[in-house]
Each structure stands twice: as C-alpha cells, then as structure tokens.
Design a protein that fits this description.
With about 300 residues, this protein is of the alpha/beta class. The protein has helices at about 45-50, 70, 90-100, 105-115, 130-145, 160-180, 190-195, 215-220, 230-240, 260-275, 290-300; strands at about 5-15, 15-30, 30-35, 60-65, 75-80, 150-155, 180-185, 200-205, 205-215, 225-230, 250, 255-260, 280-285. It has a 6-stranded mixed β-sheet with strand order 5-6-7-3-8-9, with helices on both faces. It has a 4-stranded antiparallel β-sheet with strand order 11-12-10-13, with helices on one face. The structure holds adenosine-5'-triphosphate (ATP).
Length: about 300
C-alpha cells in the first residue's frame, strides 16, 4: 500500500463559495505531509471532510487506498484546531474520559500516552492551567488513543512560542519514526514545517496550488552562488577542467551562477583565484522558503 490519503476533485461549498475547490491531495505512507495555506485557505475544511465531520459536495476520498471510509477512518486520528480538551480535568482525567468514550482500556494506554507526549509529570494540574503547547500535546494524545496509522493535526503550532513549536516538531518526528505513523500537519507557515516535512501541499483560496516533495522544495529554493569575475570565458575554461565540473550558467560578461552547493563554493573561488581570475564578488542569491511560498500564493 503506497497511499494513506488521496482526494480527487474534492469540493466543499458554503453557499456559493468553495472552501475546498477541486482538490487532489496525495499523502504517501510514511510521509510527514506539510499542508500549507494562509488563514481561511481551506485547510480545516479539508481535514473535516477527510475525518467525516463534513460531507463533500463533489469528489472522492480514499483512505489506505479504499473508499470504505467508515472502516478506514478507524485507523485515523484527528486533532482539529481548538482541541477537545476539558479545562477542568487533569491530563490523566481527560484521557480517561476519551478512553471510556472509545471503549478502550485506560490502564494499558494512559500512562504510555502521557509519557509519549511529555505530560507524565503534570499530576493534579488541571488542563486550564496548562500552557498552550501542553494543551496541544494533550489534544494530540487524545487523537493517538485509538492507535492510529494516520494522524491529521490542524494547526498544532499556531500561537506557540519557539519552545512549544520545537516540542511539537519533535513529537511529530518521534511519532513518525518510532511509531511509523503517517502524519498530515497543517500550518500557515511553511518555514515552521520545513525541518520535518517530507512532502508538501500548498492550498490557496480552496485550490491546491502545488504539491511537491522535500527534495523538490530544496531544489527550488536552493538559490545560486553568484560569482562576478573579470574574465568569464577564461573562468569557464578553468572550471570545465576540474574533475567535478560544477553546474553553472553564465548570466552576463562578468557573472556566473552556480547551483548552490555550499561545500563547493570555497573550491570554486580558490580554483578561479589560483588561475589568475579576479573575483569581484561572490554571494548566494535566491529564495528562502517564505519567499517561495509567497511567490506560489501570488501567482494564483
Ligand atoms: N461552516 C462554515 N460555514 C460557512 N463558511 C465556512 C464554514 N467553514 C469554513 N468556512 C469558510 O471556508 C473558508 C475556508 O475555511 P477553513 O477554516 O477551512 O480555512 P483554514 O485554511 O483552515 O483557515 P484557518 O487556519 O483560519 O482555520 C473560509 O473562507 C471560511 O470562512
């Protein structure tokens, strides 16, 4: 089985506005799928459609390559924004409540779950006194209770400070690596997910703008090393004689750009200088992730 989630032409309208518009989304087994879009882009609506909390107007959903969603949703855990945590209960009591609701044996699950999300030491503290990050981790524990193979987290890092964000990122990685859980995680900040996501889907105004892998993103955002020299032709001649010819393009009479491979920059500069080329400047030009994200949004 290759795909955990596939949607085809998925559409959900509210009145005459399509919150999710003809969306094809593909999550592969083992992915950490970064589902990125600005506020109101349609992320929550899509997650609600997949988890069965809303019904689509058009299109299809497959979970674990099956359209028998009632069955397959049992293997899925969901945490939607505004987590379903009871403020007056402790972490343990919250998990107890949900265990009972799901017909699970609390004695075998709860302590392990609290340890997994790093809340084992919260004792008698009520959830209302938790930090937002702790509440989010408790909500993730609730979504994990039924031992899902696929977990959807809607904006789990929204509003968190850098420490809280790091904790969620580490938890997501742990769940993915140690428990082999495929994870879809939504966010409006591409950069926050770029450290962990293996695949991305970008949604804007309900429309899927693009879907790409981590490798493709790195390639697109890698930027270039721009070297300005006095003699471009001679520089190229020198470079072409190297044992590992770098990937370059000539921009004008003084400028060459190389695919930015940081470990090669020094070597290129040294080789050129050694062979009598005057280097006027050498810098990395190009996009960072947020620039790239903004560009994708603006092109739509
Ligand atoms: N029940 C509803 N009734 C009417 N409009 C809705 C409803 N739910 C969502 N919408 C609209 O659909 C669009 C997409 O909303 P959605 O919540 O899916 O976006 P989002 O990407 O999750 O953003 P956010 O991070 O702000 O939740 C928005 O314009 C929203 O106002």
């Amino acid at each position: 089985m290759e795909y955990v989630l596939q949607t085809k032409g998925l559409t959900k309208r509210f009145g005459n506005k399509a919150a999710v518009n003809n969306v094809n989304l593909n999550v592969k087994k083992g992915d950490i799928y970064g589902f990125i879009g600005k506020n109101g882009a349609g992320k929550t609506t899509l997650i609600r459609l997949v988890s069965g909390l809303a019904r689509p107007n058009e299109g299809s959903i497959k979970l674990f390559e099956s359209e028998n969603l009632d069955n397959e949703r049992r293997k899925t855990g969901t945490m939607i924004e505004n987590p379903a945590v009871f403020p007056g209960l402790t972490a343990k009591q919250n998990l107890h409540y949900y265990c009972r609701l799901l017909g699970l044996d609390p004695s075998t699950t709860i302590d392990e779950m609290l340890r997994l999300v790093g809340l084992e030491d919260t004792g008698r503290k009520k959830a209302k006194n938790f930090s937002l990050g702790m509440k989010q981790r408790l909500a993730i524990a609730i979504a994990l209770l039924d031992d899902p193979e696929f977990l959807m987290l809607d904006e789990p890092i929204n509003g968190l400070d850098p420490t809280g964000i790091k904790e969620i990122r580490e938890l997501v990685l742990k769940l993915n690596k140690e428990k082999s859980i495929t994870i879809l995680i939504s966010s409006h900040i591409l950069g926050e997910l770029s450290k962990i996501a293996t695949r991305y889907g970008i949604i804007n105004n309900g429309v899927m703008v693009d879907e790409f892998t981590k490798e493709e993103l790195l390639h697109r955002c890698v930027g270039e090393l721009e070297v300005k020299v006095d003699l471009v032709n001679k520089a190229i001649e020198i470079l072409s004689k190297l044992s590992q010819v770098p990937n370059y393009r000539v921009i004008d009479d003084n400028t060459i750009r190389f695919v930015n491979e940081p470990d090669k920059a020094g070597m290129i500069n040294t080789e050129l200088a050694k062979n009598g080329i005057t280097i006027m400047s050498s810098s990395v030009v190009g996009q960072d992730l947020e620039d790239y994200f903004m560009q994708l949004m603006e092109n739509k």
